[in-house]
What does this fold into?
Amino acid sequence: MEKIILPEEKTIERGKLSKTEIKRQYDLISEYHKKYLKKLGVKMPKLRNGNGKFTMNALVLVYLSLGYPKTRVVSKTELTTFIRNFYPKVNDVQQARHLGAQDGWWIVAGGRDNIVLKVDRGSYQLFTLEQSYPDFKKGHRITDTGDWEKLKEQYGFRCATCGSRDGEPHFNWSGTKTKLERAHKNPNKPLIAGNIIPQCTKCNKADRDRWVYDEKGRVIKLADASFVRNFDKEVREKIYRILYVEFKGVNPNKLKK
It folds into this structure.
């Protein structure tokens, strides 16, 4: 496959690329995508939108891929300067982060616990065009399925919350064997496809239907309102103030259901 060509250094320093350079770079990225990434579900951004303008996703990917495989660290400031050649009013370019976590491109974002590249906070670097972003799932999200075996497979046969692997010693209780159970994402809803994550018996038992989880096993909401009583007084007071403002001090018994 043809190596992606780095335009002249002075061009990059100005943060500008010609339309021809952008098109050529995009076409070469497309070749890598077709060969390595399409089958993994990585989304290839459109080059132009309905108005014929270059899309911001395509521009960001093109700029980060310059010189591939010897890419370089690009600060958000530099990236924003480049994008402003096409979108003058843009203030904060978030496309690099979205292309990684959401669309599957392996773009290293600074400030995270990265193991492949050292990148400072506020900067990005394209790592490879031959592998997808780590843990990227085809279609991005876990497929809603009622098939328990298939669901466990999507999670690598690990507890969504602690990561302990089914049938192996537990991470936190090494003397016990991990056993996965069907667990609610939201205990206030039925245990059906779309509302199930695999949890080990330890995590599921400790939960006691208090929390709402996302598909990665992270707590995102409180499911049992009565558990607020266990919070520190300072926290309860803050919650009270928030709710008092939201409901305008109305007596709870007079609230419309």
